[in-house]
Amino acid sequence: MRCVCFAMICWLAGAAAEAQDWATAMFDHTSYDFGTVAKAAKVEHHFPFKNDSAYDIHIATVQSSCSCTQPELTKQWVRKGEAAEVIARIDTRTFNGRREATVRVTIDQPVQAEVQLHVYCYIRSDIVVNPGEINFGSVDRGSKASCKVVVSYAGRSDWRIVDVQSGEEHLSATIVQLSRGFGQVAYELTIELKDDMPEGYLKDHVILVTNDPTPDSARVPIAVEGLVLAPLSAKPALFSVGAVKPAEIVTKHLVIQEKVPFRILSVAVPDKRFQAKYPSLPGTVQSVAITFQADDKPGEVVGELLIRTDLSTGETLKVPVLGEVLDKDGRTVVPRRTAAGLGTSTIDGWRPVGP
After folding, report:
1. What is the pLDDT along the chain (355 residues), one digit of tens a residue?
2. Residue 282 burial by CB count (10 A; 0-12/13-18/19+): exposed, middle or buried?
3. Are 61 and 117 members of one domain?
4. d(CA 292, CA 36)
5. 245 and 184 both lie in a single domain
6. Pair (84, 143) in one structural domain
């Protein structure tokens, strides 16, 4: 009897270790060091992860070991194949000096597991950035934009910003000294977004290089964010058919927008299971009805919708398509996975219950 109990304990320990390894492996990385940051600066880091298992995952809690760090979860239920993020934000207004925190991500379905994410930073109280980030908001592609922040310093009378650096070639910087005296210095930093910036989400940093004597304190990052919009855009940007049964018919709408009136000339669909209907009259907003009729072949549905308009740019709008045809019993067609993919006999046959 003792041997049986001992074997059971070892089996459970092994299953728990496998689940722990699988959970950690979902994350692109589990540690990030912000380095030296300014007082009141926006300081946050995104930890991306993807559910590559055969099961839906439910995250029960995300908690930080330090009140200086506020964690946020973009999705609590992460379906198989979906991606999500844990965002760690540092409170640089309240706290100073060296800070470090562990963010514990607790998973309760399909198995119990915990992932620990680590963040580190040093908050300088002698440098203040106002506002705390460079945020361009939404910018039309082909347009220039600029944003200003004031960098204030209190301390050495000879303190200077000697350079502004960025790895983003579509940004340019100008730094102007506003005042100096009695150990206090103020600079105005202007960051310009060039008109050749491609569409998409911009998330980067510019680095203030100072004449501080130590390399760690001489480089101070300031967050840069913005969204460059294409003149012609589709919502949603990814057209999801969903999970459909054989012979099932699904109709969803795609909204196409522009600032000036336009007509849709054609919509090319991925295969013969799709049909598209769209208005013939011009408008700044067009609704395209996409109908998908599943066949009897289960599997993944992938492709693109190619939308051609009468706009002078001649641009073809491409919208990715994703979905799945279930088998005749309404089950997904997913290859069996290894222990790291939650396909072992330790939880075989278990199915999580969605929200």
Report:
1. 544 443 433 433 444 555 568 899 999 999 999 999 999 999 999 999 999 888 999 999 999 999 999 999 999 999 988 999 999 999 999 999 999 999 999 999 999 999 999 999 999 999 999 999 999 998 887 888 999 999 999 999 999 999 999 888 899 999 999 999 999 999 999 999 998 888 788 889 999 999 999 888 899 999 999 988 777 888 888 999 988 999 999 999 999 988 789 999 999 999 999 999 999 999 989 999 999 999 999 999 999 999 999 987 777 899 999 999 998 888 877 554 333 333 332 223 333 333 3
2. middle
3. yes
4. 53
5. no
6. no
Q: What three-state secondary structure class fits 23? A: helix
Distance CA 224, CA 220 (A): 13
Who contacts 187 (Cβ-Cβ below 8 Å, separation ≥6)? 150, 151, 152, 161, 175, 176, 177, 178
Please count the structural domains in the chain.
3
Domain span at residue 64 reads 2-125
The CA distances from residue 9 to 3, 5, 21, 37, in Å, are 10, 6, 18, 47
User: Does residue 355 fall inside a structural domain?
Assistant: no
Are the CB atoms for 346 and 20 separated by under 8 Å? no
Which residues touch 141 (CB under 8 Å, ≥6 apart)? 197, 198, 199, 228, 229, 230, 231
By the 8 A CB rule, do 70 and 117 touch? no
pTM of the entire predicted model: 0.64
Longest dimension (CA), the chain: 82
**206, 134 in Cβ contact below 8 A?**
yes
**54 near 337, Cβ under 8 Å?**
yes
Domain end (from 209, 229, 249): 229
